C-alpha cells in the first residue's frame, strides 16, 4: 500500500460502519417541506390581521367595517342543529353536526349587515398548517357570487344578527374544527381571535345520500348509529349465549377519545374524510400491536396486570382509560372486546356498524382453506401434531359504506376485524372487505378478503399419519367452519341470522362456483377424493350446567348392508374459546358393533369431578371428538361436538321510582354453588344512561355463601336501558346478570 | 349504600383500572396451541429413534438393517447440482438448489441397497415443530409405490452407494432445510443424527415453468437473477446520471442475511413459498420503520451517526452489518439504497428483479392525482403555502412473478417499493402491484396500486390564491410527473426506457380511458376546465458543472395575433432530490414584450456565488420555476426546469496482471476544484469479486490539492467486473469514479 499524501492529509483508520448510539428520530428536513398534518389539534397560527400591503401611516378608522360582537353556534341539544343532525345524544358542550347537511350559526355584528358592500367569510380550520387544497382550511362565503367547496347562504337577518346556513362537503375531513369569522377590509383581512367555544365537530352522515356512508333505512340507522346498547353472541352455534354491552358512544369523553385514537395513530388528516381509510386505520389502532393502540390481547388466563376480558360490560371505561392516560394500551381484550370497542368508535364517528359473531371461525388462517387435524394410524387424534385450532366463535365488525375504490356492486356492509391475526404476515389490521365480494368468492379486491373468506369457509381436513410419517387425508368436513353468523336484530334484543350474507346454501350450485372462484384466486383447498361413507357417527347436543355430571350420547348409523365393527376413540378436552386445548379430561375407547342398516346410541357418562377443575382454570368449553376406524374397511369416521357449560347467573333487581333524578336502588345477588371458596371476587355493575360503573371486591365468598350488594343511583336520562352486572374471579368468570329498566321524564 | 355481607367478606376499594406496570409480552397460552413457526432456525427435536411400540427385551441386532455411513450432498460449485441449478456463484459451503428441479445426493450404506426389502426416506425439516401438513417436514421416498409431495427416485446404485434424485414441490418453502435419512425397521424408525453439514438451501427457480417466478427469457434471467453488478439511474430525465452498484447477492453471508431478514420480521414459514408474500414482507423489512428492518432513512444532510446514503457503493456491507449486529438497523438510506438492497434480497433468493427509476415522481401522494403549487394573486409561487413536493426521481423495484391471487393477465413484472411513504396511512410497505394493472388503470387489485399509479400519473395543479384566501386552479400540467421510467439494459450497461410499460402515449385515446378508469376507482383529478393558452414559456435545458456561472434561457412563444406583455417571476431554488426546497438563490422579475406570433429568448445569468454554498449544503439540484401573468388577459403561464449540477469525478485506474490470484493495484485520484478546504473526507473503493471494500479518511484536502491513493489486491474471481470508488464529506458528496476490469482465469 502506498500513499502519495500532501503534507496536510493524514490517513486515519476507516470509520466504524455500525454506530453504537443513534438518536431515535431523524429530522424531516429534506424529506418533507413541513411535518405532515396527522393530528387534529388545531394550530394557533391563523393570523388576526392579514394586511394586503404595507399599511400607510394613519389608518382610517376600521370601525366603519363589520366588527363581530358575538357568535352563537346554536349548539344546545334541543336546538335545531343537533336535533336535525341526530347529534343531540352526545354528552358534549360543543356543536356537533354531520357533513353534507345544512347547519346554522348566528353572528351578531356591530351594525346591520349590508350584503353588497360587506364581505366576510366563516372560516373552518383543522390541524396544523391549514390549507385549502388539503381540505384543512375552508372559507365559507354567504354570497351567491362566490362559493368555496362548502356552501354558505344568509338564511335570515334581524337587526345586527345574521343567521348563516352552512353545508359542508360530503367528503370533508371528520374531526373537530376551529372557527373564525374573517371580514375583508380594503387594507386586509380582520379575523376574530381563536375561541375554542366556537369549535365544531363534523361527523359522517348516514342520513345524507351524498355521503359515502349513506344508509337508506331509518331503523338500521337508529340501531347501527344511534343505539348505545347492544347484544354480543358467543358460546356454540347450537347453544348460543348472549352478553349485553354498553357501547356508550355518546358518553362524555368518548368522541374526543375517538379523535385521539386517530391522532395517536398518526393518521393524516387528509385521509379522515374517507370511511374506507378510517375504518382500516382503526382496525389497526384498536389493537395495541405495532402502534400502541387501545387494547392488549390476552387469552392466557393470567390477567393480573389488567381487567379480565370477560369482566368488562362496556366500552366507555376502556376508551376513557386509553385517552386519559395519553394512549397507554388497556388490558385485556379478547375478540368480542376488540369488536365492541371498535363498534363504539365507528358509531361515534357516524359510520353505521354492528358486531357479528361467526361460529366455528378459522381465525389463524393463511388464506388457505385447510384446518388440519392429525390422526395416528389407529385413527386417534394426535394432539402433539395437531397445531391448527378453530375458534369456537369469533366476533368482528361490519360497517356500512360505498366502495368507490372497487368496481360496482361491492358497496354496503364491509368486514373489519381488529383482533390481531398472527399467521398472515404480521397483519394486525383487517378490512374493510366487502361482504358481497366474500359471498361471491371475489377475494381479489382489497382489503384482506382471502382471510375473511377462509374464516367462514375453511374445510377441516383429517389426516391419517402412517408409521413412516406420511400423511394422507382421510376425511374432509366442509360444513364445520362458518356454521352460523349472527348479529343483533334491529331495535330489539332478538337474533338475526346473517349466514346467507356470507355464504350460499350448503351444497348449492352457487356455493360450488364460489369455492372454485376462490380457488382460482389462490385459496387452496384439499382436493383428495375420498370414498363415500358407510358409517356415520354424530355426537348429540347437550345443555349442561357447571358442576353437573351428564351423559354424552353418540349416534351411530350403518348405511351399508353388512355388519360392521368400529373401534372408537372418544376424547373430551377442555378448550379455550380459541379452540386451543388445555387438558384432556375424558378418554374412552368403546368398540361398537352395528348390524346392517342399524342406528344405535352409545352413552358416555361425564362426571363433574373429571372436568370441573380444569374447566374452571380455563373458563372455556368441553370439546368432544370421536374418531375411529371401521375394522373391515379401514375407513375413518369422525364426529365433533362443542359442549357449552353454563355458568351460574347473577340476579339483578332495580327498585324505586323510575324517573329522571329520582332516587333508585340496584341490588346484585349471587350464591356460590360450589364446594370451594371463591377468592378476590370483583363484581361490576353498569347502567347506561342511568348509573355509572360501580365495582366492589369481595375477599372471599365461601362454599354455599351468598352476597347481596345494593347501590343507590339517580337516572340521568329517560328511555329504555339495562342494568348489567358481571362477577369475576380467578376461579370463576363470565357470571352475568341483567334487568331491563325504563325511565320516564 | 347497604351491604348484606357474610362475616368473611370485606368490601375493599375498587381495583385500579389502569395498571402502572405490565410485562411486555403476554404468554401465547390459550391463544395458540404452540408458538408460531416464524423462524428458519432448525429445531433439534427430530428424534433419533421412533419406536413403533414398546420394544421387547433383547432386541435382535439392528445391524441387519440399512445403516447410513455417509451422505455426499454433491455440493461443490463445479459439480452437477450447483451447475444445473445456477447456484454455483454463491460463496457458500452448503448445497444450494432451486425448487421444482431435480438434484442428487449420494448415500453410502453399510451394504448394498435392496429395493424391495429396504425402506428408507430422505427427510427435510425447516424451523421449529416441523409438520408435513405445513410443508415444514417432508419425507422423500425413493420408491415408485409411495411418493410424498416431493418426488424421489433412485438414479443409480453402485456397491453400497445409492444416488437419489429429489424434486421439491414448485411452491415449497424457500429457506435452509436440515436433512435426515430415516430407515424403517420392524421396531421403529432409525434416523441419522442431526448434521448441519448436510443442510441444504432451497430457492425460487425462474428456470422452472412450474415455479410462480418462472421467467421465460434466458438473458433476462442472467441479468435479473445472476448479475451482481448494476447501474442505477438518477438526476434529471433530460440529464440522466448513472451510479454503479454492487448488489453482491452471491457474496459470503448474504444468503443467510436474507433468511435472517425474514426471521427478524417474524414471517411465518408457511408463507415463505409464495413470492407475492415474500416480496411484500420484504418491502416492509428493508426499511426500519415499525419493525427494526434493515435501513434507516435520512434526507436531512446530518449523517453523523451513520454512513451518508450517497457514500455506499453496494449492498454487501449493509446486509452484513445488519445480520452481524443481529438486526440493528443500518444508517443511512435514501430511495436508491432501499431499492438496491431490496434488489439484492430478491435476486439472492431467486426472484428475478431490477431497480427502476421514475423521473419526477409524486412519492408522497395519498392516492389522489394532484400535486399542488400555490401562486399568489400576482402569479408568484407562494412557497409558504406550497407543501407538496415532487421527487426529482424515485427508485423502486420490479420483480417478476405470476399473480394467482388476481384475475388473469396481471402476472409478470410487479412494483415493490421499500422507501417509506408517509401520507398513506402509515404505509411502510408497498406492493407487489402489477405493472400491467397500473398501465390499464385497474388500480383496484392488491397491493397498493393507487399509490404507484399516482407516482407516475399525478397532475401538477397550479392554484391562484386570491386576497381573501380562496384558491382557483389556473393551470394543470399533466405531463410533468412520470416523465420517464428507466432501468438498466439486459447484460450491458445501457439504458432501457420502460415508460411505455407504465403509461400509454401522452394524449392517446387509451391514456384518456385509463385515467377515467382510475378516477372511477377513486383516484381524484383536478377537473377544472381552463382556457387554452395564447402564450407558452419554456426553460431550456442546461448542463452545468459544479462551480460554474451559467446562463439560464427562457423561450417565450406568442401564438396569438395580438401584442402581449408578460410580468414574469423567475425563482431558482436549491432543492433536495425529494423536491423539498432548501433556499431560494435566484429571483428575478423581468417584463417581456411579445409581438404577434413572436418567439423570443430571455437570458438570466446565474452566478456561482449565488448558488454554490447552498447547493453544497444540500447536495441537491437547482429547480427553476417561472410563473407569470399575461397583462391583457390575466392568464397564468408557467414553466419548470430542474438543472442538475455535475460534480467533479474521481479517476480510478487499475494496473497489474489481470489474472486470478495475481497481484494488482488500484489507484484513486482526486483534485479539490474549490477555493475552500474539504475536511473529514472518506474515500471508499470496492471491486465486486476482486477486492473487498477499502475505505480511507483524509482529515483535510486543501483548495486545489490532490490526493492519490493506491491499494494492492488479488482477484478472487474471473470475469468482467468494475472497480468503483466514491468520495464523501460534509461539504461535497456524490463524487464517483469507476473503471471496467476483466480478469482471466
UniProtKB/TrEMBL annotation, chains A, B:
Tagged with keyword Metal-binding: yes
Any GO MF annotation of the entry: protein-glutamine gamma-glutamyltransferase activity
Similarity comment text for this entry: Belongs to the transglutaminase superfamily. Transglutaminase family.
Domain of life of the source: Eukaryota
Official protein name in the record: protein-glutamine gamma-glutamyltransferase
Cofactor comment: Binds 1 Ca(2+) ion per subunit.
InterPro entries (UniProt xref): Ig-like_fold, Ig_E-set, Papain-like_cys_pep_sf, Transglutaminase, Transglutaminase-like, Transglutaminase-like_sf, Transglutaminase_animal, Transglutaminase_C
SUPFAM superfamilies: Cysteine proteinases, E set domains, Transglutaminase, two C-terminal domains
Pfam families tied to this protein: Transglut_C, Transglut_core, Transglut_N
Record field: catalytic activity: L-glutaminyl-[protein] + L-lysyl-[protein] = [protein]-L-lysyl-N(6)-5-L-glutamyl-[protein] + NH4(+)
Required co-factors: Ca(2+)
GO biological process: blood coagulation, fibrin clot formation; nervous system development
Species of provenance: Electrophorus voltai
Biased amino acid composition, Basic residues: 22-32
Lineage: Eukaryota, Metazoa, Chordata, Craniata, Vertebrata
Chain positions recorded as Ca(2+) binding sites: 457, 459, 506, 511
Span list, region Disordered: 1-32
Active site: 335, 394, 417
Entry coiled-coil feature ranges: none
Entry EC no(s): 2.3.2.13
Keyword Calcium: yes
Keywords from the named record: Acyltransferase, Calcium, Metal-binding, Transferase
Domain Transglutaminase-like: 327-420
Amino acid at each position: 500500500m502506498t500513499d502519495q499524501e500532501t503534507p496536510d492529509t493524514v490517513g486515519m483508520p476507516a470509520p466504524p460502519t455500525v454506530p453504537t448510539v443513534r438518536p431515535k428520530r431523524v429530522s424531516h428536513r429534506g424529506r418533507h417541506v413541513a411535518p405532515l398534518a396527522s393530528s387534529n389539534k388545531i394550530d394557533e397560527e391563523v393570523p388576526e390581521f392579514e394586511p394586503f400591503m404595507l399599511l400607510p401611516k394613519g389608518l382610517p378608522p376600521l370601525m366603519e367595517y363589520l366588527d363581530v360582537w358575538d357568535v352563537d353556534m346554536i349548539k344546545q341539544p334541543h336546538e335545531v342543529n343537533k336535533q336535525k343532525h341526530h347529534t343531540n345524544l352526545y354528552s358534549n358542550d360543543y356543536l356537533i353536526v354531520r357533513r353534507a347537511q345544512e347547519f346554522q350559526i348566528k353572528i351578531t355584528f356591530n351594525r346591520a349587515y349590508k350584503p353588497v358592500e360587506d364581505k366576510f367569510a366563516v372560516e373552518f380550520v383543522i390541524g396544523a398548517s391549514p390549507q385549502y387544497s388539503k381540505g384543512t382550511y375552508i372559507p365559507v362565503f354567504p354570497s351567491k357570487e362566490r362559493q368555496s367547496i362548502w356552501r354558505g347562504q344568509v338564511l335570515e337577518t334581524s337587526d345586527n344578527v345574521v343567521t348563516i346556513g352552512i353545508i359542508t362537503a360530503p367528503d370533508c375531513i371528520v374531526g373537530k374544527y376551529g372557527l373564525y369569522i374573517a371580514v375583508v377590509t380594503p387594507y386586509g383581512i380582520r379575523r376574530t381571535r381563536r375561541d375554542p367555544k366556537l369549535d365544531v365537530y363534523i361527523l359522517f352522515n348516514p342520513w345524507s345520500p351524498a355521503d359515502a356512508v349513506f344508509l337508506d333505512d331509518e331503523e338500521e340507522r337508529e340501531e347501527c348509529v344511534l343505539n348505545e346498547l347492544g347484544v354480543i353472541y358467543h358460546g356454540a352455534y347450537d347453544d348460543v349465549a348472549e352478553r349485553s354491552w354498553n357501547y356508550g358512544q355518546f358518553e362524555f369523553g368518548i368522541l374526543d377519545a375517538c379523535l385521539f385514537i386517530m391522532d395517536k395513530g398518526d393518521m393524516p388528516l387528509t385521509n379522515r374524510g374517507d370511511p374506507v381509510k378510517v375504518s382500516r386505520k382503526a382496525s389497526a389502532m384498536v389493537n395495541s400491536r405495532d402502534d400502541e393502540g387501545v387494547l392488549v390481547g390476552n387469552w392466557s388466563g393470567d390477567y393480573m396486570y389488567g381487567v379480565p376480558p370477560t369482566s368488562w360490560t362496556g366500552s366507555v371505561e376502556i376508551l376513557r382509560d386509553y385517552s386519559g392516560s395519553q394512549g397507554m394500551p388497556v388490558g385485556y381484550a379478547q375478540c368480542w372486546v376488540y369488536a365492541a370497542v371498535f363498534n363504539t368508535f365507528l358509531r361515534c364517528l357516524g359510520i353505521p356498524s354492528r358486531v357479528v359473531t361467526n361460529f366455528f371461525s378459522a381465525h389463524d388462517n393463511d388464506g388457505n382453506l385447510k384446518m388440519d387435524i392429525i390422526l395416528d394410524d389407529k385413527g386417534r387424534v394426535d394432539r402433539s401434531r395437531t397445531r391448527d385450532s378453530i375458534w369456537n366463535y369469533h366476533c368482528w365488525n361490519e360497517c356500512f359504506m360505498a366502495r368507490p375504490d372497487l368496481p360496482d356492486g361491492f358497496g354496503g356492509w364491509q368486514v373489519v376485524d381488529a383482533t390481531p391475526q398472527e399467521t398472515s404476515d404480521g397483519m394486525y389490521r383487517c378490512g374493510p372487505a366487502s361482504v358481497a365480494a366474500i359471498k361471491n368468492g371475489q377475494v381479489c379486491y382489497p382489503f384482506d378478503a382471502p382471510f375473511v373468506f377462509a374464516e367462514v369457509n375453511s374445510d377441516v381436513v383429517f389426516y391419517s399419519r402412517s408409521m413412516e410419517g406420511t400423511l394422507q387425508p382421510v376425511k374432509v368436513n366442509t360444513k364445520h367452519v362458518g356454521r352460523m353468523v349472527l348479529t343483533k336484530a334491529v331495535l330489539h334484543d332478538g337474533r338475526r341470522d346473517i349466514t346467507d350474507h356470507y355464504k350460499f346454501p350448503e351444497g348449492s350450485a352457487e356455493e360450488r362456483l364460489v369455492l372454485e372462484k376462490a380457488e382460482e384466486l389462490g385459496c387452496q383447498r384439499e382436493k383428495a377424493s375420498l370414498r363415500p361413507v358407510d358409517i356415520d357417527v354424530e355426537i348429540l347436543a347437550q345443555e349442561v350446567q357447571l358442576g353437573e355430571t351428564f351423559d354424552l350420547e353418540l349416534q351411530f348409523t350403518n348405511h351399508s348392508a353388512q355388519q360392521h365393527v368400529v373401534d372408537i376413540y372418544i376424547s373430551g378436552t377442555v378448550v379455550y374459546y380459541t379452540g386451543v386445548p388445555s387438558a384432556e379430561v375424558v378418554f374412552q375407547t368403546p368398540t361398537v358393533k352395528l348390524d346392517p342398516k342399524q342406528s344405535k346410541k352409545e352413552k358416555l357418562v361425564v362426571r363433574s369431578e373429571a372436568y370441573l377443575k380444569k374447566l374452571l382454570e380455563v373458563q372455556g368449553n368441553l370439546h368432544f371428538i370421536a374418531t375411529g376406524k371401521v375394522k373391515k374397511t379401514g375407513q375413518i369416521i369422525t364426529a365433533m361436538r362443542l359442549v357449552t357449560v353454563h355458568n351460574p347467573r347473577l340476579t339483578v333487581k332495580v327498585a324505586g321510582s323510575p324517573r329522571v333524578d329520582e332516587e333508585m336502588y340496584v341490588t346484585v345477588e349471587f350464591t356460590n354453588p360450589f364446594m370451594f371458596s371463591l377468592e378476590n371476587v370483583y363484581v361490576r355493575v353498569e347502567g347506561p344512561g342511568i348509573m355509572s360503573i360501580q365495582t366492589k371486591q369481595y375477599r372471599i365468598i365461601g362454599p354455599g355463601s351468598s352476597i347481596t350488594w345494593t347501590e343507590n343511583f339517580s337516572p340521568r336520562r329517560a328511555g329504555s336501558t339495562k342494568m348489567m352486572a358481571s362477577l369475576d374471579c380467578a376461579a370463576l368468570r363470565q357470571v352475568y346478570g341483567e334487568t331491563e329498566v325504563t325511565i320516564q321524564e
